[in-house]
Amino acid sequence: MGQQVGVARAAHVLGVSRHELQRLIHDGDLQTFEGRVDLDELRQRYPSMALKDDPITERINLIRGTAFARRVRETVTPEKDALELQLRRRTTDLNVAEAQLKRFRGCIEELAQLLGDLNREATPEQKRMIMVINSWLLDKLER
Question: Which DSSP helix (H) or strand (E) runs through 6?
């Protein structure tokens, strides 16, 4: 179902008198619902009648077209303040993660240094254990 307009507005848009439009309705050539006429039905049934460029009809179409886009934009796109808040939170999370990464990297470097120091003075059994630990650590870091 298309745009519904009153009988008087439909007559104006079609460029006919209201009396003539009411005669079409009375004769059963045009359907109405609660005193309103479907403009798409008028276009289909009476293609020879040129629909005027009605500023009110154009305005209605413009409002309908932009209303949906506005609803989508409001629903999908958050407000500027909300975006700024999300950006600040993500920046803070990134800074915390980078600080943790730096601490973890420092711990791993210290562990590697300690294992190297132990390896210099270790027995053959201890050297095998250090090698197993080093292999395990390298395997975990490369994943």
Answer: strand 4-6
